[in-house]
Amino acid sequence: MINPELQRNLWLEVTPHRLIALPLLILAILYLGFLSNNSELGQEVADTAMLLAWMSTLLWGAMLAGEGLLAEVRGRTWEQQRMSALGAWQLAWGKLLGSTAMAWYGAAVALPVWLLACEHPAAQMVLELARLLLAGLLLQSLSLLAALHGLRRDRDTAGRSWTMPLLLALVLLPWLGFSGAPETPLRWYGGDYTSLRFIVLSLLLFTGWVLIGLWQVMRSELQMQVHPGWWLGFMLTVMFYCAGFVDGQQSALLPMGRLGVAFFAGLILLYGALLVEPKSPFHFIRLLAFWEQSDRRRLYSQLPAWLSAMGLLALTLLLLLLWPVPAPIEGRLFFLALFLFMLRDTLLLLGIAFSPRSKRPELAGVLYLGVLYLLIPLILAALNLSHLAPLLLPTAQSTVWLSLPAAAIEAGLAFLFMRRRWQAVVAAPMAAPQEE
Amino acid sequence: MIEVRGLTFDYPGVRALDDLTFTIERGSVVALVGPNGAGKSTLMRCLAALDQPVAGVIRLDGEEILADPRPAHRKIGYLPDFFGLYDALSVEQCLRFHAAAHGIEGGAQAKAVRLAAERLGLSDRLQQLARELSRGLRQRLAIAQAIVHEPPFLLLDEPASGLDPEARHSLSELFLQLRAEGMTLLVSSHILSELQAYSTHMLLLRGGRIVASEAIVGAVDAGRRMRLQLAAPFAELAALLDGVVAVSSLRVEGQRAEFVLAGDEAVAQQLLARLVQAGAPVCAFGPGERDMQGAYLERVRGAQ
Questions:
Q1: Which stretches does DSSP call E strand in chain B?
Q2: At residue A77, what are phi and psi to the nearest 5 degrees?
Q3: How far, in Å, CA of B287 to CA of A333, rounded?
Q4: pLDDT digits (tens, 9 = 90+) for A96-146
Q5: Is B235 helix (H, G, I), strand (E, B) or coil?
Q6: DSSP state letter for B222
Q7: Pairing relation of β-strands B282-287 and B225-230?
């Protein structure tokens, strides 16, 4: 039996008008390319066909994937979907492939022309095709994932969630682009790869992880148990992946360098999770209630991703501090300062989110971080006081003796701020519902 | 059977459901009543496993639905108070999708779609797009979607909203029919007279707490609650009835009186004889069902 969610999307998306109009449009553009190329098929026409396929799957497809879900929320049909007996994975892939069916159809119209016109070797063409399919799937999954995440955070403002993957698509296009030299050498964990092959393998890896993430976030939306291990697995993969680009086979400090890069990659993911995930005090009150009831299933299922990320980063930090190589102490303590500044920022953002009047804590958090990491350093530089910048942010290993105590004190102050807000929240009596 | 134990649900700063414990027997039609904001919709959403409560257990036929909601959804039909339809799909496609999404395939699917459409009077509109339906027909389609998979347990939040009197009457008959077929219904509505037509039990919520959970018809009060109708005004009626020790909860409205009578048929016969002897123009005297409005007000006053 066909996946009911896929079937429903096909009913809605695939109309006779679209089936006829889209190929006409794409073929007309390609014909124009053909005429511009002296009425000959060639690499220029192939590139135009591939560009149309890219635009259809990455840009239009990513928009359709996120928008499909948000249209359901606006149309009040999403609750009925949540009431269906379809599994989370069934719902996720049915929605993903169904809502983007026309985008893939557009690519399917352009690709035969590309196959006819392309002058690249067959092996390269296979890789280019794989790159298109995987990049399209990755961006579309990411868009749906972002829409789901936005939905969990705030059902009223979720409409903007798919814009992020679209921006990401625009940023990634040059990196993934078809015009780059496919044979550019690339070293990763000492191995040599060509850039196209490496991109395809990377896309395969991360598309897999985004699909796992989509499945897990869909489970959460359907009130099903979520395994926190998936996020740690993803984080470890990203850390391991990024660390592979650190080269220098002869250096005894290579493991430290790779650990340092892994730490940075983990730190970026932690900040991402911190900004994206819900931080309302209500969420933590529920977690505490689950803890008191010894309801581990629901506790672990709803544990914030940034909290588990913090645990993994703490372990990485421990390795960086204790790894038995003759690394300078300042270098090691620099990561401790980074961790403490991260702790300060986390506590600060939680304190902001715990305010009863906080309406958009994510936005307020970004603003505060912008002030701390951008505005104040710029003011200090303008006043010729740049030497004071390490008091607020980690600048270099040489200034770690200034950064470290400052970070510890600021983290302590941020903790007091967060605790004060939290106590005000928990001390407030729980009201009965307002009846009319 | 639905068992709810210690159900507590919080919104930020508000305890919407406060330690609710109750049971809904199989085959009953429970009217969920209470003022706006009492927690009715929140309770429905928890029973549908759409929202996770802070504490409590909900069991459907012995299985905990909060632990794994998806299998439970095969057994539950839910109509939210604000629902949506896929406007670009036909009535048949809407019903087919909902049947398939609940695991009904092949020939069984066509049969389920036909039956649901018949029950809601939509058989002649199967090819019509949802966007072309009137408000009442949309409501009927939404109810058809909720029952297309023949769930043993049906949750309906304001199901009669938007329906004309005739459609409301048909809906009442449908609920009675579904009950007769073994379905258990929990229906939330503000129109108590309609709930009266098909409900067997009442669950009254106020301020997130259960004020009353009781049967409406059948054993409770029938036989003891009496109804008296006069053919002409009789000024002494209230004083006369009030003076009878066996009479309580007296309510006199014009030529009509309702009260609870302690005792058997002999006591009722003695009371009737006394009324006639006093010159009361009695034209009807017999057991009366307590209506839901009366039960609701009685319980609400009691809670205050």
A1: 2-11, 14-24, 29-33, 55-60, 63-64, 76-79, 153-157, 184-188, 201-206, 209-215, 225-230, 247-253, 256-261, 282-287
A2: -105, -10
A3: 87
A4: 999 999 999 999 999 999 999 988 899 989 999 999 999 999 999 999 998
A5: coil
A6: B
A7: antiparallel
Instruction: Write the single-letter amino acid at A202.
Output: S
**CA pair distance B180, A140, nearest whole angstrom:** 48
**Dist. CA A425–CA B10, nearest whole Å:** 14
* CA distances from residue B96 to A38, B106, B128, B136 in whole angstroms, order as listed: 53, 10, 14, 20
Q: Determine the residue type at B173.
A: E
* Cα–Cα distance measured from residue A353 to residue A282, given in angstroms and rounded to the nearest whole number: 10
Q: Give the angle A265-A267-A268 at the CA atoms, nearest 5°.
A: 65
Instruction: Give the nearest chain B residue to A436 (CA atoms).
Output: B36
* Spatial separation of the C-alpha atoms in residues A307 and A298, rounded to whole Å: 15
Smallest CA-to-CA distance from B56 within B2, B102, B124 is with B2
Under 8 Å between Cβ of B6 and B56: yes
What is the torsional sign of CA A97, A101, A104, A105?
positive
Mean pLDDT, range B64-87, rounded to an integer: 90
Ramachandran class of B27: left when φ > 0, alpha when ψ lies in -120 to 50, beta otherwise: left
Q: Report the gap between the CA of A289 and the closest CA in chain B (Å).
A: 7
Going by pLDDT thresholds of 50, 70 and 90, the confidence category of residue B222 is: very low
- Pick from B44, B97, B148, B211 the residue to mutate for testing the A interface (most A CBs within 10 Å): B97
Contacts of A155 (CB under 8 A, 6+ apart): A73
Question: What is the bridge-based pairing of β-strands B63-64 and B14-24?
Answer: unpaired
The label of the residue with tokens 């409409």 reads A159
Q: Chain B, 237-296: which have a CB under 8 Å from a chain A CB?
A: none
pLDDT recorded at residue A158: 53
d(CA A84, CA B204): 28
User: What does the DSSP 8-state code read for residue A390?
Assistant: G
Say yes or no to pLDDT of A234 above 90.
Answer: yes
Q: What share of chain A is helix, strand, coil (3-state, %, to 5)?
A: 75, 0, 20
DSSP output for A170-191: HHHHHHH-TTS-TT-EEEETTE
Predicted TM-score (pTM) of the model is 0.84
**Above 70 in pLDDT, residue A360?**
yes
Encode pLDDT of B177-218 as tens digits: 888 888 999 999 877 877 887 888 889 999 889 988 877 754
Q: Which of residues 54-113 of B touch A (CB under 8 A)?
A: 54-55, 66-71, 73-74, 76, 78, 80, 82-89, 93, 97-98, 100-103, 105-106
- DSSP letters, A391-429, are GTS---GGGHHHHHHHHHHHHHHHHHHHHHHHHHHHHSP
Confidence at residue A343, expressed as pLDDT on a 0 to 100 scale: 96
In this structure, what DSSP letter does residue B199 have? -
The per-residue pLDDT for B220 is 37
Query: Mind listing the pLDDT tens digit for each residue in A152-194?
Result: 766 655 555 556 666 666 666 655 554 556 677 888 998 888 8
Per residue in B116-157, pLDDT tens? Answer: 999 999 999 999 999 999 988 999 999 999 999 999 999 999
Q: What is the mean pLDDT of chain A?
A: 87
With b meaning 16 or more CB within 10 Å and e meaning fewer, what string describes A58-90? bbbbbbbbbbbbbbbbeeebbbbbbbbbbebbb
H or E element, residue A193: strand A191-194
| Rounded Cα–Cα distance for residues A174 and A187 (Å) | 20
The pairing of strands B225-230 and B153-157 is unpaired
Residue of B nearest to A299 (CA): B54
